[in-house]
Write a structure and sequence with these properties.
Length: 501
């Protein structure tokens, strides 16, 4: 069943169609069925959305609200999300092809993010600077950064949007949200709720369409103050270069090539089970997926054999398939990309232990299903070890010492996340400290919290989302110095009458 949503751009408080009436069909990655028809914005629509956000911000219609008022708004949005949670989960699983049960978890996480920022808004944001002069009041105040372009990916469309939208609203910013062209439905639902919650006109704007067409103008326009982007490295670099022209602030989350390090002294049952989840959850379409298994040589055969057995047993299926454990890739183009990635790995000398191709099992052949894949005998010089596949592909490398495990774990341009499995607490701490990644899990893989910062070292990005620093991205810091008893500075001598000619 398809959702007809042709008036699906939200600009200046109005739902409208694209200026040239263009539309886009959203098709299920599970079976190609039509799930939605949405407006396809033009660059003119993007410019209108920027103008709307700029006018609303400059008029202070929202930024003048108190922190308490903005927090209450964000809490109301959380309530509305809770009310519509099931409806939104259905939209999300329809666009992404992910199982409904996973989409429900995503929506629950989104609600937590809005609740967290509603609470954080109520904490103290200003600071008094003590000056050794009773006439002086010196204060550090936090102000909204301005107009924000929020550009998100297709793997966790609503969740990634929430990491940007909730702090932007609490901070008092105006924004233009641009979800991936492939997964717009949950963003439409979110903006409807933001409107229903009582957000002033022009503060929240929604643009749908291809990145090159309507995402790029958001990153080059001088009326935009900040770009927060989650997506691929190449796009992130392009955005950063464009944003430099107008010296915009940029916050980038660009994925990772995340090492999952298993030492021989680990709880192997837990480590192996988590290694399987780490890479095959959501068919590997996770920025923090544990796609790089680093395993101590003495346990290599045992660990790999068990992972291969588990990988072969994974049941794939569509949104409503109760027995499915993971779903399809997002698109044909992405499936072909993952396929080429495996071909290249084999050409470079990796050994294929299982998977490596599109599923041939009916009815999965209607969708973009790729078999869980394990590549052994990988080394850091191979592109499969260095490049993100963003698919269900595990590469296996061996190490002989703690130092080698650390060196391998850091031998990547990325630095988003990593894990270390060992029963030796001191070793775990040493390795966690030595790894250059934004999140390290010890004897675990994957958990994150709205209260805890998320983001990457090195090419994985700039800035942090979630936690207090996730709000900080949307704030400018201003120092206000007040002299309660104005006096002359007395620096330069007074000019004597007749001195100046
Ligand atoms: P992109 O980086 O191309 O897209 C992410 C978002 O940016 C989408 O909304 C996209 O729009 C938009 N966009 C694309 N080009 C521009 C531009 N020039 N200016 C502004 N916005 C733009 O990701 P892809 O979907 O193509 O995926 C490519 C790779 O990125 C994946 O294979 C994966 O490796 C990685 N990725 C990483 C994610 C992460 O969480 N870090 C998430 C998703 C992907 P649209 O899609 O509508 O064209």
């Amino acid at each position: 069943m398809s959702a007809q949503s042709v008036n699906s751009l939200f600009i200046d408080g109005q739902w409208r169609s694209a200026s040239n009436n263009s539309i886009r069909e959203i098709r299920s990655p599970h079976d190609g069925s039509l799930v939605a028809i949405v407006s396809e914005a033009t660059p003119q629509d993007a410019a209108d959305a920027i103008a709307s956000a700029r006018v609303s911000f400059d008029s202070a219609v929202f930024s003048s609200w108190s922190w308490e008022e903005r927090s209450a708004l964000v809490a109301r949005i959380a309530d509305l999300l809770e009310r519509d949670a099931e409806k939104i989960a259905l939209l999300e699983s329809g666009d992404t092809g992910k199982r409904l049960v996973e989409a429900r978890y995503d929506v629950a996480d989104v609600i937590s993010v809005f609740r967290y920022y509603a609470g954080l808004g109520l904490t103290e944001h200003d600071r008094v600077v003590h000056v050794d002069d009773e006439r002086i009041k010196s204060q550090i105040v936090s102000e909204p950064v301005g107009v924000c372009a929020l550009i998100g990916p297709w793997n966790y469309p609503l969740l990634q949007a929430s990491w940007k939208v909730a702090p932007a609203l609490v901070a008092g910013c105006s924004f233009i949200l641009k979800p991936s062209e492939l997964t717009p439905s949950s963003a439409i639902a979110l903006i409807k709720l933001i409107d229903e919650a009582g957000t002033p006109k022009g503060v929240a704007n929604l643009i749908l369409g291809a990145g090159a067409n309507v995402g790029a103008p958001l990153t080059s326009d001088k009326r935009v103050d900040l770009v927060s982007f989650t997506g691929g490295l190449a796009t992130g670099k392009a955005i950063m270069a464009t944003a430099a022209e107008t010296v915009k602030k940029v916050a980038l989350e660009l994925g990772g090539k995340n090492p999952n390090i298993i030492f021989a002294d680990a709880d192997l049952d837990a480590a192996i089970d988590n290694a399987v989840t780490a890479v095959f959850l959501h068919s590997g379409q996770v920025c923090s997926a544990g796609t790089r298994l680093l395993v101590e040589r003495s346990i290599h055969d045992l660990v790999v054999e068990k992972i291969v057995v588990r990988a072969r047993a994974i049941r794939m299926g569509g949104p409503s398939d109760q027995s499915a454990e993971t779903g399809p890739l997002i698109s044909q183009g992405h499936m072909e990309k993952v396929s080429k990635y495996v071909e290249r790995a084999l050409a470079e000398g990796a050994q294929l232990l299982t998977g490596g191709k599109r599923s041939t099992l009916p009815p999965l052949t209607k969708g973009w299903y790729f078999e869980p894949t394990v590549l052994d005998h990988c080394v850091t010089t191979m592109s499969c070890v260095q490049d993100e596949s963003f698919g269900p592909v595990l590469t296996v490398e061996v190490f002989d010492s703690e130092a080698e495990a650390i060196a391998l774990g850091n031998d990547t341009i990325y630095g988003l996340a990593g894990a270390v499995w060992t029963n030796d607490t001191d070793k775990a701490k040493r390795v966690a400290k030595a790894l250059h990644h934004g999140t390290i899990w010890i004897n675990d893989f994957g958990p994150y919290k709205a209260q805890a910062e998320w983001g990457g070292f090195k090419a994985s990005g700039i800035g942090r989302e979630l936690g207090p620093n996730g709000l900080q991205e949307y704030l400018e810091i201003k120092h206000v110095w007040t002299n309660t008893s104005p006096a002359r500075s007395g620096w330069f001598a007074d000019a004597q009458q007749g001195d100046s000619k």
